[in-house]
Amino acid sequence: MTRQLHLNAFLMTVGHHEAAWRLPESDPFAHLDLQHYVRLARIAERGRLDSLFLADTPALWNSIGRRPSGGLEPTVLLTALATATEHIGLIATASTSYNEPYNLARRFASLDHISGGRAGWNVVTTAGPDAARNFNLDDQPAHRDRYERAAEFIEVSRKLWDSWEDDAALGDKANGVWGDDSKIHPAGHEGRYFRVAGALNVPRPPQGHPLLVQAGSSADGRELAARYADAVFTAQQTLADAQAFYADLKRRALAEGRDPDTIKILPGIVPAIGSTEAEALALEEELDRLIRPEYALRQLATTLRVDPADLHLDRELPDDLPAEDEIEAAKSRYTLIVELARRERLTVRQLIGRLGGGRGHRTFAGTPEQVADAIQHWFDNGAADGFNIMAPVLPAGLELFVEHVVPLLQRRGLFRTEYTTGTLREHYGLPRPAAVLAGA
Amino acid sequence: MTRQLHLNAFLMTVGHHEAAWRLPESDPFAHLDLQHYVRLARIAERGRLDSLFLADTPALWNSIGRRPSGGLEPTVLLTALATATEHIGLIATASTSYNEPYNLARRFASLDHISGGRAGWNVVTTAGPDAARNFNLDDQPAHRDRYERAAEFIEVSRKLWDSWEDDAALGDKANGVWGDDSKIHPAGHEGRYFRVAGALNVPRPPQGHPLLVQAGSSADGRELAARYADAVFTAQQTLADAQAFYADLKRRALAEGRDPDTIKILPGIVPAIGSTEAEALALEEELDRLIRPEYALRQLATTLRVDPADLHLDRELPDDLPAEDEIEAAKSRYTLIVELARRERLTVRQLIGRLGGGRGHRTFAGTPEQVADAIQHWFDNGAADGFNIMAPVLPAGLELFVEHVVPLLQRRGLFRTEYTTGTLREHYGLPRPAAVLAGA
Does B84 contact chain A (CB < 8 Å)? Predict the structure, then answer.
């Protein structure tokens, strides 16, 4: 069988472009309305996409002026979407720094049961001090500490998911024995960050383990992905960078003793789709014109760790920016932004436009044919196993992608025309993991 | 208008009776099947009940042999049920000892948005060492500590729910200002148990605050209820005890400066319903006969803090049991069980039968007329504002209650015949709380 693409719909309020909410057709409160997400999920499912995905951080942005703010907690929202869909995978972001493994492993196991094996967890360590201050801390833990905790968090979660053998539940009415206690294996975990005694209070999930996604591209993030991730979401601006990232991650997975084909790499793409290239570019320009630069400038200054007064809209970035290893949060995104600005000699205003579309993800304006070509080009050239589709405007952009780009990819034999698999792992061509039993 | 009952459907697997799963009609795996709960929720809604409710503890019971074990996490499950219902309130238990306020306040706010104002939170401190050992501890914190933490947890949650003024979101497209930052009030909480800086990342819930339920009946539990609870679930075996509890709690609420009518007291009742009294008693006997006493004996010994070898099935409880103030978990339930056994001079086997039906809640076998009379008698005599309906077998017992008992209560003018209110608070006749704004 021909190698096929994996496509994930990254959903965000009324679109990834920060000004999408200002378009006449956008409902600025849609992100609080379940029916908006139901509609998006059904569009993605109509397109036979592998999965949909929600980002998250447990803190409110600095300003609610800029764009639709606050939202529904992802594990809860995806459970509602599980009841409105039948096939599509459901991936929620959740933080290892600000959760307890017992609670989170349990919610993902519950979502996996409710959805019939369609749950995925995007493992994040949550950068920045704002979240830390909501959880009894003064500032975020160091980058390395966050990633060590994340690795241990995943280890504990696996022990919990595996704490019931698949056939532990008997339902033996005649003898009055509901389950076989000998098939329960308490986690008995004692580590640096966590002590977790118990078996989980949910039977083993249909998928064994929910699909694990990782999206950090720093060295620590890649190492975590190479050890644990089934899929990686990544921001890559150029083919060369994407190829280097792809090769590096496959190599790291191999070094961890894994089949490199079991880690799927999905760069993001923000496609502005028009029936002509000119129409696509006009949409992108209209959106960029609606950005209020003062908000974006403030955020850019925070990301770059500079004083907002040192950034001038019509000049390039200052020369004296910190080196990546001085950055404690979103390290690789920092480097990507600085390199993008330097490579294309962008003014701050132009950089803000580019970031407003996809926050560092690759923006691409074109016809359906051009978008399909762009996707296939990276897919055929060792840069991607699939894509994270980040429509600039929702639902319109996802609808255009599903109705006009997906059929082209299907005609080229690059994408499924029907769902032929049941679980999210199966959609991604991944096996159900065997249980590692504590004490066995 | 005549004072009316509030009725809550307490759902549990295939029934509250521990042997319900052994009946021929029971699916022993129904508690992992969303459709089972959807069916129950729709039956309860057909009966115009105020709410449904799920208990919870973040640990697996000692043995999975006894009865259906493991289950779906309640906030996640209720979100799925929110999409399958339109009117009924949705109350989930969640622990203040093993959660962080930011995460939990956010999930309840999300559920309140998704359900259009139908979320309720049963605040528990979680007794017992098993849960503690899943959260980095060797044993549960002391009773008093757990309740102090619970009070602070609620205070933080309220600050978070109130951190957005109701009209903070503007959606002003013309000026490109989505929300008014001056209407965001960060919690700024610094307490003994929690430091939480931030504003919540969800706008204020439709109900202002989700309905707060409390179910602890110890002195600490009553005090917490008197300060914060909108509704109280309680286990009461006799009219006299229920009257004393009711009067005490209303008095305590008054002492806290509250209108006693704004705290609704709902004792549990486990109704075995038959078309004749003999048929109802036969159902109860059939269920009791299906109990395997060795499991129940072990749990009773744990509750009573005695060696299982000191309990003899055909004798009464030993004389030298600990006093309530030596008990650190489920204090009032301990006393209730000991008093029940002593008052009725029950053997251990008989006591196990009584507890197998409702774990200390009042069991009642009779015709629909007798059940309606029992409910009205307590309601008319200062013992209850409503009832927590704990069907011994599900869905059958809830169906019988809705089809045969509810119409009697309606005919007597004691219960609504249609939903005339929208939110859970409104169903319970409670106002939407005003926001207390940090820094205002």
Answer: yes
Residue A333 banded pLDDT, cuts 50, 70, 90: confident
Give CB contacts under 8 A, 24+ apart, made by B337-345. Answer: B337/B300, B337/B303, B337/B304, B338/B304, B339/B237, B340/B237, B341/B316, B341/B317, B342/B316, B342/B317, B345/B316
Query: Cβ contact (<8 Å) for A179 and B22?
Result: no
| Phi and psi at residue A48, to the nearest 5° | 60, 25
- Span A348-352, average pLDDT: 88
Q: Residue B195 and residue A73: Cβ atoms within 8 Å?
A: no
Strand partners, B264: B231
- Whether residue A18 contacts residue A58, with contact meaning beta carbons closer than 8 Å, is answered with no
Those residues with Cβ within 8 angstroms of residue B399's Cβ, 6 or more apart along the chain or in another chain: B43
Per-residue pLDDT at A86 exceeds 90: yes
Alpha carbons A188 and B240: distance in angstroms, whole number: 46
* 8 Å CB contact of B75 and A76: yes
pLDDT-based confidence at A439, cuts 50/70/90?
low
Q: What is the pLDDT of residue A31?
A: 96
- In this complex, do A28 and B69 lie within 8 Å of one another by their Cβ atoms? no
What pLDDT is stored for residue A407 in this prediction? 98
Chain B residues close to A60, C-beta within 8 Å: 184, 198-201
Q: At what angle do helices B348-358 and B331-343 cross, to 10 degrees?
A: 130
Cα separation, A310 vs A425, in Å, equals 47
Residue A76 confidence (pLDDT) above 60: yes
Residue A97 half-sphere exposure, CB side, CA atoms within 13 Å? 29
Domain boundaries, chain A: 6-273+362-427
Total CB pairs under 8 A between chain A and B: 220
> What residues does B54 pair with on adjacent strands?
B11, B92
CA distance A59 to B199: 7
Which 89-148 residues of chain A touch chain B by CB within 8 A? Answer: 98-100, 102-103, 106-107, 110-111, 113-114, 130, 133-137
CB-nearest partner of B22 from A60, A173, A181? A173
Q: Is the pLDDT of residue B440 over 70?
A: no
Among 3.20.20.30, 1.10.1740.10, 1.10.10.10, 3.20.20.220, name the CATH number for the domain at B6-172+179-277+361-427: 3.20.20.30
Q: Give the predicted TM-score (pTM) of the model.
A: 0.95
Query: Can you give the C-alpha Rg of chain B in angstroms?
Result: 22
* φ, ψ of residue A370 in degrees (nearest 5): -65, -40
Chain A within 8 Å of B29 (Cβ-Cβ)?
Answer: yes
Are B164 and B184 a contacting pair, CB within 8 Å? yes
User: Where residue A358 falls among pLDDT bands split at 50, 70, 90?
Assistant: confident
CA distance A247 to B193: 47
Would an 8 Å CB–CB cutoff place B289 in contact with chain A? Answer: no
Minimal C-alpha gap between A356 and chain B (Å)? 14
How close A144 comes to chain B (CA, Å)? 22
Q: Which residues of B touch A65 (CB under 8 A)?
A: 177-181
Q: Is the peptide bond before A395 cis (omega within 30 degrees of 0)?
A: yes
Q: What is the mean pLDDT of residues B339-347?
A: 92
Q: Could you tell me which of B151, B75, B150, B153 has the C-alpha nearest to residue B109?
A: B75
CB contact under 8 A, A72 and B110: yes
The CATH class of the A6-273+362-427 domain is alpha beta
Between residues A297 and B41, the one the model is more confident about: B41
**pLDDT attached to residue B438:** 61
CB contact under 8 A, B164 and A70: yes
What tokens does B76 get?
């996640």
Distances (CA, A) of A71 to A30, A199, A357: 10, 32, 20
Is A143 labelled a binding residue?
Answer: yes
